[in-house]
Amino acid sequence: MSTADNRLDEERTRTGLSKDALNRAFLDNLFYIQGRSLEVATDNNLYQAAAYTVRDRMLERWIKSARIYKDQSARTVCYLSAEFLLGPHLANNMINLGITEVAREVAEELGLDFERIIESEEEPGLGNGGLGRLAACYMDSLATTQIPAIGYGIRYEFGIFDQVIVDGWQVEKGDTWLRNGNPWEIMRPKLAFPVGFGGYSEAYTDEHGVPRQRWRPNLVVNGVAYDTAIMGYGVTNVNLLRLWKSEAPESFNFGAFNVGDYYGAVHAKIEAETISKVLYPNDEPVAGKELRLKQQFFFVSCSLQDMIRLELRHTGHLERFHHKYAIQLNDTHPSLAVAELMRLLLDDHLMTWDQAWEITRNSCHFTNHTLLPEALETWSVELFECLLPRHLEIIYEINRRFLDEVRVHFLGDDERVARMSLIDEQGGRRVRMAHLAAVGSKAINGVAELHTELLKSTVMKDFNDLWPERFHNVTNGVTPRRFIVASNPELAALITETCGNDRWVQDLECLRDLEPHAEDHALQQRWREVKTNAKRKLSNWLGERTGFAPDPETLFDVQAKRFHEYKRQHLNLLHIVWLYEQIKQRPNIDLTPRTFIFGGKAAPGYFMAKLMIKLINAVGEVINTDPQVNGYLRVLFMPDFNVKNGQRLYPAADLSEQISLAGKEASGTGNMKFSMNGALTIGTLDGANIEIRDEVGHENFFLFGMTAAEVQQQQAAGYEPWELYQRDEQLRAAVDLISSGLFSHGDTELFRPLTENLIHSDPFMVLADFNDYRERQQEVDHAYKDRHHWNRMSILNTTRMGKFSSDRSIKEYAERIWQVTPMSADLSSPF
Ligand SMILES: *Cc1c(COP(=O)(O)O)cnc(C)c1O
C-alpha cells in the first residue's frame, strides 16, 4: 500500500460508520474539541461531541458532491429565502446518514442517554412559521432528490423569540441560539462580499466612450458566508445552505480612527453588524422598517455576487448565467434580486440592457405565498431613493419598458396600466415588490390549487391576462424524514414492518401498500397503541412544563400554528366555551372527553392575537379547575411552539384543527404534518385542506364552513355579524359568556375588544361558520366512540398522504419550473 492509500484508509476510519469508528470519534471530539472526559461532560458537551462526529461524516460527502456538481457543470437551484426554519439538525442528519441505530448503541455502551443528547440541541429558529419551515423542508428534499442546490439566507444572531406565558399572557424572550456555539456551521471568513447602501448614482463615460451609470454608496458592509451541509436521505448528495452575516469591512475603522473619530468608527461598526442581528418576528411585512429592507437587499446582493463569482471562476463569463442557475424567490422578500442582478450585470459587468434583462428574466422564478392585502409588500419610493438610489433608477426603467408592453397589449386601458405599474402612485408613491418579482421572473407559482386559482383571478389577475403561460401551481409539501421518521419513530417502525420495507421514506406514495391492512383489527390495535404512546409521551412532557399532564385516553384536539385572526383560533375557543355551557346545563351529558391543546406565537405587536392567547389561558383556568366539567374538557396551552415542540405535538394529535376562513390560508403545511401522523382533520375548504380531503377521501375528513366563493358572495352582499348574533341563541350564549367576565375574574372589559370585534365587524366570519363547525364537532365526538372506525380513518389518513411529501413538490419545481435534472453524487466514483 502506498502512503497515499494509507492516509486515505486512515481518513476512512476517522469518518467510518461502524460502531467502533463512531465510538472513537465521539470520545475524540469530546476530548480534543472541548477538553472534556466522559465523567465531567455536561449535556451540551455530549451533544456537541455527537454533532461534530456526525458532521465529520458529512464532510467527505459534501466536498465530493460539490466537486461532482462542478465537474459536470450542473445546473444549480438557488433558493433565496429570508427565512429558514430548520429545526434541530442532529437527529435528522443521523437519519439521513443511516446511522441512528448504531449511534444509539454507541451511546448505550458508553452509559449515555441517547434521547437526552438529541434533546440538548437548541434549534436555529431562523423563521416565523410556515414560509420558513417550507424552505427547510425543500432543502431536505432537494438533497434527497439529488438536485444540485444552494439555499441562501440570513444568519440572524437572534431568531424568532422564545415564548413564555406569564399570567396567561405571551411574553417574548430573546432567542440566544448561538450562545453555546453552532457545531453545524462552518464560517468562511475569506468568502465575503461588500454590500452598499445609500449614496447616489452617477453617469460617466467608459474607456470605449460608452455612457454608463454607476452607484456610489455612502455605506458599505461586508457579508460573510456561514455554510451548513444539508444531507439527503438514502443518497450521498450533500447540498449547501449558505447564510450571510453582516460585518463592518476589515479596513473599516482605520479611516475614522486616524481623524480621531473613535466613537464614530465604533458606531458605524455596530450599525453594520445590526443588519443580520435579528429576525423580524412578524408573519407579514412591517410597514416602513428600513432595517428590514436593508436585510433583504443585504442577503440578495451577497447571494448574487456569490453566484456570479462561481460562474466566472468556472466559465470566465456570464452569458450563460441563466443556464447555470435557477433562482427561486421565496415570496417577495428576495424580489430585489431582479433589480440587483440587473445592476450587477449592467454596471459591474458592462452588459447591454437587453442582454442583462434576458439573463435576469430567465434566471428568476417567484413563489407567491399570500392573498391577504396587508401582506403584499410595498416600500416607499422615498426610502428606496435614500437607501438604494441606483436600484430605483433600474426599477423605473424596467417599469417604463414593461408598461409600454402593457399599453400595446391592452390598448387604451389606462386603468390597467396604473394597476400593473411597479409603482403605486396613490397616496405616497410605493414600489410594489410582487410586481417587481412577477415582471422579472420566468415563472410565478401559487402554493396550493385554490390559492393559485385565486392568485390568477384576484391579486395577479392582470398579470395572468398578460402572461398566462407564466403561472403554475406547486402544492406545498413537508419532509417525511423529519415529520414521521424523526418525530414519530414508533409509527415509522410500524409502517416499515407492515409494508415489509422502508421505501416509503424516500417515496411516500409507497404508503399505499399499507392500505389493504386498514381493515385489519390487529394493525388497528397496534396503530392505536402507537398513537396512545405518543400522547402519553406528550402528556408527560406537558406535565413537567405546565404542571398538568392530560389523560392520554381523552381525544387530543390540537390547533398549533401562528396566532392570527384569519386562522381563527377564536372559532375553536367559541366552541369550547359553548361546550362548557352545555355541560353546565346538563351535567350528565354524553360527551367524549377531550383535551384541547393550543400552541403558537403571536407577533409581538399584534394585539388581537395576543388577546386570543390570554383568552385561551383564561378559559383553561376556569374549565380545568371546575370538577363539574374537567372530566369532559381540558384546555391547555403549550408554550413556545417551534419545530422541536411541533415534533412532540404532531404524533400525539387525534384531531387537527385547520379552520381558517376559506380563501385566506395559501396552503398550510401543518395540516399535512398532522395527517401524516394519523390525525383526522376538521377543516374548511381552504388551501391544501381541499387537496388533503380529496386524497384521504371525503368520508375521512370533517368538513365544515363556507367555500371561498360563498365568502366572496356574502361579503359582497354585506355581511352582518350582528344579525347572526341576535338570531342565533347558541352563538350569543357563547359570546356573552366571554364578555360576562366569567373568565376574567369579573372583569367585563378585558375581552371586550375581541367580542365587540366579532359582533360588529368579524372580518374573518367566525360567526358565519360557527354553527356548521359546532355540528361537525358533534360528529367528531360520535365518531371517536367507534374506535375501529376511527382507527381505520386514521390509518387511511396516513396511507394517502403520498402527495404531500416535499419530494413531490421539488420534483414538480424541477421538471416544470427549473428544468433541472437530478445528479447523483456517488461516492464510489473517482474522487
Ligand atoms: C409547520 C409549521 C408551521 C406552519 O403551520 P400552519 O398550520 O401551516 O400555519 C408553523 N410553525 C412551525 C414551527 C411549523 O413546524
TrEMBL record:
Which SUPFAM superfamilies does the UniProt entry name for this protein?
Answer: UDP-Glycosyltransferase/glycogen phosphorylase
Question: Looking at its record, which EC class is this enzyme?
Answer: transferase
Taken from the record, one Pfam family name reads Phosphorylase
A GO molecular-function descriptor: glycogen phosphorylase activity
Which PROSITE patterns does the entry mention?
A: PHOSPHORYLASE
Biological-process GO terms, alphabetical: glycogen catabolic process
> Keyword set for this entry?
Carbohydrate metabolism, Glycosyltransferase, Pyridoxal phosphate, Transferase
**Which Gene Ontology cellular-component terms appear in the entry?**
cytoplasm
Q: What is the name of the protein in this document?
A: Alpha-1,4 glucan phosphorylase
The reply on keyword Transferase is yes
Q: What EC numbers are recorded for this enzyme?
A: 2.4.1.1
Q: Where is the signal peptide?
A: none
What domain of life? Bacteria
